[in-house]
Amino acid sequence: MKTYQKNVDYISKELFLLLLIAGSLVRLFLMLRGHNWDVDSWRIVADIVSSGDNVYSSTTRYNYGPIWFNILGLLDRGFGWISDDLFRIRFAVSAFLTIVDALLACYLSSTYSRKVALLFFLNPISIIITGYHSQFDNLAILVGLVAISSYERAPLLKHKIMPLALLGLSLSIKHVLILFPVWMFFKEKRFARRILVLMIPLGIFFLLFIPYINEGASGIIANVFRYASFNNAPFWTVFAPNFMFMLLPEESYRLFFLGAIILLGFIMRNRSLRESSYIYLISFVALSSAVAGQYLAISIPGIAVNWNFIFGIYSFLGGLYLSISPDGLHLASFQYQIYGYYLLIPILATGLMYSLVGREESIRLLKSLKKRIVDILKQGI
After folding, report:
1. Which listed residue, 16, 66, 174, 345, has the most CB atoms within 10 A of its CB?
2. For residue range 306-362, what is the model confidence (pLDDT) as tens digits?
3. Domain range spanning residue 348?
4. Could you report the per-residue pLDDT of 223-279, keeping only the tens digit for each?
């Protein structure tokens, strides 16, 4: 698998800084385009936090661990000098997530190269999701990647406890890496370590809900643990035989996703943890049973590290889709937005295959997608 190694950078520090500033300004500019359902939800949640009420018992529009709503409360207070309530939360969240993107770019630069960092930071999907959509997967990913890298470098078991706790915090921010402890389990040879990589991150994830259980238990169960996004399953719809879904219930999409991620983790067990973490981010989106616009950005750090021409196609088309989609920048009328994921996700999956098995097999698969996608568009989904 092709990955970038840390070496001499051909992009100067000055140019890198200039492009970070430019990318940050574009993100903040997109915030002026308007807002969506999530930003409205952040306003509702920030009001609940400021009133001292339990978020989980007060709204159905929050589906995550407690860390993010506390951050929303801090941001809302910190930018209190902005009088307009809605604009305040829009600007505060967009600015905060832009800083997170910049920190993630700096982390990629220090770990790989400035080229890799810019492939992430200037990716149109990352720019639109951070600047306009204001989803915070990037924060969970940054904390998680630092935790995984620290765990891998730690020489002794006692030194690995803190990185595992940090990974638990990542899950509590947003559970993007919820299945990565299973990948870590496959890599460990010793029984004690296998137990720890499962118990510590997942244990922290669950423990942080305890202060909110008294009043919010039903909300936590209904809106966090039982929450289901769009059950569109674009990868499985395109690649799996039609008869499978005629015979199996709709919920089987989720089982296929879980099974595929766990199987891939077993296959990747001999790769380094850091290398595996970036493949995980791509596969988490490519194989998902539910894909919405903000999920497209989860794969971008992994794409930057494992860059190939297919990921370039995905990035361009994904940015175009998010620009014209009614759920994105709505720059143009787009009647068939429902079909966008049935094109983007197969391309992402093909790029993943390119990274794992090479050029010829992935190109053959990409060519075979054309007829399948045309058939889906003709038949309707």
Report:
1. 345
2. 999 999 999 999 999 999 888 788 787 666 666 788 889 989 998 998 888 776 666
3. 234-379
4. 898 877 667 788 888 777 655 665 666 667 788 899 999 999 999 999 999 999 999
Contact 279, 302 (CB under 8 A): yes
Q: Where are the alpha helices (DSSP H) in the chain?
A: 13-31, 37-51, 55-58, 66-78, 85-111, 114-121, 124-128, 137-153, 157-173, 180-187, 191-207, 213-220, 234-239, 242-247, 252-267, 273-286, 300-305, 309-324, 340-357, 359-379
Kindly state whether residue 279 falls inside one of the protein's structural domains. Answer: yes
279, 352 Cβ separation under 8 angstroms? yes
Higher pLDDT, 28 or 155: 28
- Residue 159 Cα distances to 152, 153, 163, 193, 199, angstroms: 10, 9, 8, 12, 16
Residue 163 lies in a domain: no
Q: Which residue has the tokens 């899950």?
A: 171
Number of domains in the chain: 1
Q: Rounded to an integer, what distance in angstroms lies between the CA atom of residue 160 and that of residue 146?
A: 12
Is 285 within the bounds of a domain? yes
Residue 63 has what pLDDT?
92
d(CA 73, CA 228): 25
Asked whether the CA dihedral 94, 97, 99, 101 is positive or negative, the reply is negative
Distance CA 125, CA 319 (A): 5
Using alpha carbons, select from 144, 190, 138, 149 the residue that is nearest to residue 171: 144
